[in-house]
Amino acid sequence: MVNLQNNNKMHEIVLLGLNHITAPVELRECLAFSSQEAIDSLGLLGKDPAVNELLIFSTCNRVEILMTSTDIPAAIHAAKTHISKFKNIEQGKYEKALYILQGEDAIKHVFRVASSLDSMIIGEPQILGQIKEAYRIATENKTSGVILNRLLHRTFFVAKKVRTETGIGGSAVSISYAAVELGKKIFGSLEGKKVLMIGAGEMVELAVEHIIQNRASEIYVANRTFRRAVELADRFQGKALRFEEIPDSLKSVDIIISSTGSPDFIISCDMVKENMRLRKNRPIFFIDIAVPRDIDPAINRISNAYVYDIDDLKSVIDENLEERKKEAVKGERIVDEAVIKFMEWYKNLEVVPTIVSMKNKLDVIVKSEIEKTQSTLKHLPEADLKVINRMTDSIIKRFMHDPTLFLKGNGCHGDKAIYLDATRKLFKLDE
Amino acid sequence: MESINLIVILFYLSSTAFYAAYFIKQKDFLHHIGYYLLFTGFIIHILSIGTRYTSTGIYPAGNLKENLSIASGAIAGVFLLLKYKFHLKILGTYTAPLSAIVMIISFFLPGYPPEPNMVFKNFWLITHVSIIFIGEASFALACGAGMLYLAQEHAIKTKNHGFFYKRLPSLDLIDSTGHACIVVGFTLLTIGLIIGSIYAKSVWGRFWSWDPKEVWSMISWLLYAALLHQRLTMGWRGRRAAIMSIIGFAALMFTFFGVNFLLTGHHGEFTK
User: Fold this and answer.
1) What are the CA-CA distances from residue A34 to residues A4, A22, A43, A359 (Å)?
2) Which residues of chain B have pLDDT under 50?
3) Domain segments of chain B: what residues?
4) Which position among A19, A101, A181, B117 has the lowest Cβ density within 10 Å, counted as fewest Cβ atoms?
């Protein structure tokens, strides 16, 4: 079988890599490729005759080199040599941390990594973007071909599916999501709740967006600079408040999210106590993302008032990470399915190089014959020659039609490789 | 009679088991089974009390054994209705064992042979007793909701998101269910007390006789009235309402047991 594959010049997928489990951080630091280094490596390693297609993917938690090759051992050797030379590190120092995967295993690994099943924080969303970037660089440097293109496109599809169909990215491991979850435990539903956002920043804005998605009714925005408050209020279709209006607003708003640079508390215990009577003790929920804190933690002792600061939310997140691990099992199933589907395509793909080389052979024969004929038909005008070329092209096309259908389609039963082998021998394609 | 009660107890206990399993495992089918077991037990219970009444013509509330049996049935019944409206299914983990325990105590108490006591054929008295029991069952559930509220509130306040936090529903749902129980209980208690005093007028010739049970009933009534009033005007909700519904129920329990054992009065003879 191995012999047959070599005859067919089949492109195998192979992956070399190390990650946060196999390698300590010192080693990962040594071997990480910056994006410029990755581009350079694509140029250098891509030139190696054993390496056909190439993609280099490096983050702080992993380095992965994905290749296709017709000569796997040579490709692996080339990659290792490149790493040692490029990073100036002896092979022995990193070889133990290295995993080398081929074919199905390599495909599965790529899917798992992109779906964040192999991540340090399971379900973290950045990894997919990082892989997309690595792929973009590979396509720009023309080191990715038919197989890697297809593999990466499938990878993006699988990663998205895992994200949407499992809770792997679900239970809150982000501050904003944890805040919404807590709000639901207090209010039952966030529908119709009034939200006050104090200050600005990525985390507060994310949290507010999340709360709006849960159908909160009114959004108020307060900021030291009123203009900024107006801008943000526009964005969230809310109302801008002056900073001095905050104490008064406590009698009507239900959720307060704060993140300012203030060194002192912005909302004091007394402010809340006064307003609790006015709001008839309806629950009020404070989310304090600021460091140093904006909201007096003593407020948490007031009946029906709840205060969560950034540390509290973080410990909630830690618990939810455990939940994610359970959800990851479903993700693994989706990945396994996708691997099976990809393998079907991949096996079919072996047909393509055969057809291409068959067509190339015909092209060469036809071209040389036309050249010969042309030398005896010098009187023919340019336009007529073009017609003859068109004719030969369509002869090739029509000739190729049936074998192409046969090899690609269901015409050949049993092991396709046998037919491919016969085709290659029949037309002497391997010379 | 006793064998039917035993069957009822078995149903209540198996319902308890399923609700306990639901509380731990959080699988929906478990509380569905628990609910139907409780429902079946309740129907058998009601039919047994009904048969007793129609066969003897005497309402079986003449002694503690019978009273507890009715209380157990009332608690189960009120929960079955309440769950329909509020979906606070977790309250079943409180109700099912409560019904079971009350019923078991009733089972082991000695039953006095029914005296040819004419009072338990009186329409007003039967209504008085039945309504008060349903009212008290509502308060028992409010007390349960109050305890759930305190557990969940404690979890959220102390930021300990463990066992209870995950299993208990939102504070809002628990609070509104508890409130509904109090409103229903209070309405029934009021009606029950009025009917009781009408009956007293017809028997003893006066509406109010400073009987200890009457006094303690009035104290409980005032406690719940205060709670409802404060909620409407001051917004007494959440923790305070939860604590009050537990205190209110404790007062009610004293009215039910304590008065009988510690004090004497014309209600005493029914709860020997």
Assistant:
1) 40, 20, 14, 41
2) 271-272
3) 1-116, 122-267
4) B117
Q: Which of A214-218, A406-410, B94-98 has the highest mean pLDDT?
A: B94-98
Element housing A63 (H / E): strand A62-69
The answer to whether residue A90 scores a pLDDT higher than 90 is no
Task: State CA A29 to chain mean position distance.
Answer: 22
CATH of the domain at A289: 3.40.50.720
In this structure, is residue A431 part of a structural domain? no
Residues in chain A within 8 Å Cβ distance of B161? 315-316, 319
B1 vs A379: which has the higher pLDDT: A379
* Residues of chain B contacting A319 with CB distance shorter than 8 Å: 161
Query: Confidence class of residue A4 from pLDDT cuts 50, 70 and 90?
Result: very low
Contact B237 A304 (CB under 8 A): yes
Choice among A30, A60, A269, A412 that is catalytic? A60
SS (H, E, C) chain B: CHHHHHHHHHHHHHHHHHHHHHHHHCCHHHHHHHHHHHHHHHHHHHHHHHHHHHHHCCCCCCCHHHHHHHHHHHHHHHHHHHHHHHCCHHHHHHHHHHHHHHHHHHHHCCCCCCCCCHHHHCHHHHHHHHHHHHHHHHHHHHHHHHHHHHHHHHHHHCCCCCHHHHHCCCHHHHHHHHHHHHHHHHHHHHHHHHHHHHHHHHHHCCCCCCCHHHHHHHHHHHHHHHHHHHHHHHCCCCHHHHHHHHHHHHHHHHHHHHHHHHCCCCCHHHHC
Whether residue A239 is found in the same domain as residue A130: no
pLDDT category, A196, cuts 50, 70, 90? very high
The last residue of a domain, from among A313, A339, A366: A313
A413 lies in a domain? yes
What local confidence, expressed as pLDDT, does residue A332 receive?
A: 93
Does one domain contain both A277 and A309? yes
Range(s) of the domain holding residue A421: 351-426
Of residues A215 and B179, which shows the higher confidence score?
A: B179
> Do A194 and A78 lie in a common domain?
no
Q: Averaged over A259-285, what is the pLDDT?
A: 90
User: What's the mean per-residue pLDDT of chain A?
Assistant: 86
Query: What is the model's pLDDT at position A383?
Result: 87
My answer on whether A47 and A165 are in the same domain is yes
**What would the mean pLDDT of A144-159 be, rounded to a whole number?**
89
Domain check: are A161 and A94 in the same one?
yes
Residue A166 belongs to a domain: yes
> Pick from A283, A312, A315: which is nearest to B238 by CB?
A283
A300 interfaces chain B, CB cutoff of 8 Å: yes
Query: In the prediction, which pLDDT does A17 show?
Result: 92
Between residues 220 and 259 of chain B, which touch chain A (CB distance below 8 Å)?
234-240
Domain count across chain A: 3
Is-catalytic flag, A60? yes
Between A148-152, A311-315, A320-324, B18-22, the lowest mean confidence (pLDDT) is in: A320-324
In 3D, which of B45, B199, B208, B57 has the Cα closest to residue B137?
B45
Q: Return the pLDDT at A280.
A: 86
Round to whole Å and give the CA distance between B63 and A222: 66
Helix (H) or strand (E) holding A367: helix A351-376
Taking residues A221-229, report their average pLDDT. Answer: 90
* Whether the predicted pLDDT of A6 surpasses 50: no
